[in-house]
Amino acid sequence: MKMNILSRIRSIALTAFTAATGFVSCTSVGYAEPDYDTIGKQFALVLQNAHYSRTRFSQEMYAKFLESYLQLVDPQQLYFTHADVVALREKYAKSFGDYLLAGRTKDFAELLYGEFSARALEQIGKAEQLLASYEKELPAFDTDRTAPRSRRKIARAQNQAELDRAWRDMVDDMVLTEVIRRENLVRMATEKGKPDPTLKDKPVAEKLASRLKRLRNEVQEADTEDMVATLLNSVARTYDPHSDYMSAKEEQRFKDMIKASIVGIGAQLSEQDDGTTRIEGIVKGGPAAKNGQLRLGDRIIAVDSKNNGEWVDIMYMSIDKVVDLVRGQKGVPVKLRVLTGESAEEREVVIVRDEVPMSESLASAKIVEMKTPEGKTRRVGILTLPSFYMDLDATSGVRCAADVKKLMMRMKKENVEGLIVDLRFNGGGSLEEVRKMIGFFTGAGPVVQVRDARGHRERLTVSGGKIFDGEVVVICNKLSASASEIFAGAMADYGRAVIVGDESTFGKGTVQIPRSLADYLPYFASQEGAGMIKVTVQKFYRINGASTQKKGVESDIVLPMSTAALQLGEAELDYVMPYDEILPASGYVKDGRIARILPELSKRSAARVAADKDLQYAKWNIDYRRGITERNLDSLNKATRMAENEELVNRQKAMTAERKVRYAQMAEDDAKNLRIYRLKLDDVNASKLPLVTKEDDEKYMDEVKDPEEELEEEVDYPSTLDPILRESLHIVTDMMELP
Prior knowledge:
Layout: H1 5-12, E1 16-17, H2 36-50, H3 59-73, H4 82-92, H5 96-101, H6 105-133, E2 146-148, H7 160-191, H8 204-220, H9 224-236, E3 244-246, H10 248-259, E4 262-264, E5 267-271, E6 277-283, H11 287-291, E7 299-304, E8 312-313, H12 319-326, E9 333-340, E10 345-352, E11 354-356, E12 364-371, E13 377-384, H13 400-413, E14 418-422, E15 429-430, H14 431-442, E16 445-452, E17 457-462, E18 471-476, H15 483-493, E19 498-501, E20 510-516, E21 532-541, E22 557-558, H16 593-611, H17 613-631, E23 633-635, H18 638-673, E24 674-679, E25 701-703, H19 707-711, H20 723-737
Parallel strand pairs: 1-15, 13-14, 14-18, 18-19, 19-22
Antiparallel strand pairs: 2-23, 3-21, 4-11, 5-6, 6-7, 6-25, 7-8, 7-9, 9-10, 12-13, 12-24, 16-17, 16-21, 20-21
Helix pairs in contact: 2-9, 3-9, 6-7, 6-8, 6-9, 13-14, 14-15, 16-20
């Protein structure tokens, strides 16, 4: 399943928790309907008693619950008017929590979802009618109208007329965007002498109507589990953004994410405008790849989840529900009905589910052997860690600290002098795993502090000696969160590393414990499908006493990164907990060397950044994207949009032409001055490490080739690096040279 940036934000914000927590197994699809009334009541009790704030239910909280519910189901404020919200407040704002405590969770979840679905389907229907009116002739788009890019932070429509105008603006923006996209593709194809890639596209209005049909289906297909999860999440989120309820299906997804492993067929799925679900990628070495029957580009139209003849039509079904049908228990076959190729030949494929290798989610490394301008040879390691993963069910033995230790011991054997720890997009994970990892660099001592609701402060320590004594750079961006921030903060507080990247990390300074709700149900109550509650029970603090909450960990050297243009971070979320500080932890001593050499490091880095064309391009792009976000308006005038697009296209062409020449020279220089060795977990015991090849950096799955992307001329950055890594290599070597 392809994940958009908002989904990614949600996942990274939900992955910090203590490790010493037990779980019951998630029940497979097909159990009897859970007792949602009892689940809701126990959820409400656990949340009030376990959450850090110890906030009790009250009418003030009930009003917040309703507002939170509306934010969840209508984040862009496209379904409810202000008048609708006033009416909903009158009906539910004073009694919201009482439904849960009285054991009426299921009825209330269905009642509220009914209010939402009625309004949503009404508005989607109007949009469908508008698109139908465009089937014969599209608008001219020659006025000075504009449409907001996001409605999340603008005032809700006061009445139905305003809401209808908002939908018309949104539909027209969709239509104009698609018209311009097609014209751009035709132009690019003509320039390259290739066939028109839009010839097989449906007419614009018909294509966009298909997207609305999928949206309609997503609203209609919600089951009781979905409705209850939405209701309980709206309650949890008013306590803080990271407390939530996970249904049985969501619980399993969470466990898969944190252990970097899933059971399924090993295929990436994506929604298509014709209602099918396409095979976008096939994981190398996964069940589908070994089976050989499924092909890239195949479109799934039905799923027999247990291979017992019970087919489920998945046309226009939401991608999450399709994924749930395709995934399942290890060793159980799933049957897919697929359409193949342009002929749309229908056939059936049977694949036995198994563990899917997720190598891209595991720790990996490279060793860069580089010649400095002074003629010295330096060896620098690059450790890439996508998450601080572990297996919560303790069945696979997967733990990131153990994997990182293996990689670092091999790097030590290879005489690595400096190390880059790349935590970009690392959303966190296990507190226990990050605690161990910090000790690899600092040796015995405190690594992080936690404080609970009673004000009890605990200093978490690590024992044992260092594994690595050399210079360290830690790369972070705005999506480095939670456990990543614990690591970066500790490395900074000990003076063990220079932190580089975005101005600061995400800013998540809270600890969640996932608890199976089955453990809290009455003895004779059914425990099937109870799901779990993930509740914030502690705040964590750096060993210097500062919190990472809202502020994150600031970089010592700020580099221009793509995430800098995004409005991301804890402070951007609703119902966030406040920043505060506690006393520094006793028992640690900060090395003052980095603070002493940092001014010189910053000076040298700034000079290189100013001379690096790619980093200057990145700075321009950051400023451009920030301007778009702040303006939050799209023109609905075609001439204006085409002129804006033409300016960007010409800029991209100029950059590509310049890069072709420069990258060719960089590649020649790298061949003389760089040797990059591969160090994956499978390589740690190899007699000799292999050189990195372009194939090593290719994705862990084979993917459908996008004909549109093939029209875009891009030049690969040399030597399997990127500009941020290259500058980080320079910073590490500077650290080695400075006294």
